[in-house]
Amino acid sequence: MSRMKRCLLVIFLILVLLNLTGCWGIKEIEDQTVLVGLGMDVGNLSKEEKQLAENGNSYRKKNRVTLTFQIIPFEMRQSSGKSDKSSNDLYSNIQETGDSMFQMLRKMATRRSKPMMGHHVKVIIISEELAKRIEIDKLLKFVLRDNDIRPSCLVFISKSKASEVLVSNNSGEIPSLELTGLAENGSKANNVLPPKSLTKLDGIINSGRASSCKISPALAMR
What are the pLDDT digits (tens) for 71-87? Predict the structure, then answer.
């Protein structure tokens, strides 16, 4: 190989290396709190929120909606391989009450040292009582426009409180993932409505057919 060809080859390799992409926005998994489920109920302050309000950690709001965040902290994921684990060891439910999801998510950032990652949200559960008071399109307005939550997320309506559906006594089960599995098995049962994803709901809402939309009921797992 001539000297000229060697020089051209070296220049070509350098240019190729310069064009290789890297991971600039890396976020370590141990520095994240994985959010897997959301529950929406009629506003009702929890004991923790009342204590925070008494200590001055509050702001003016009407407390219209209570959100239940089902999370899998890194500490729980580390211990998930233990054979003696219970369902309560795998997840944690945290509640925040306010008037909008954007407002409550920002408030949650002041209560946890690690930011919540919404890419793995599997289910959103809305209580029937709340759905009668506030239109579904208003409840999901922020979610439908948020890039953090995937459009494949399933939406359910629960007759009981959504916070109760996000609790399971089945050993080794995470309620949000369990509910997703039950929805997938619904194709084998004639009395279960097909699950509605955020993508389908968005299309129905934009078409003006939201009032006639039927969403699968959530099964209370107790």
Answer: 987 655 555 555 455 55
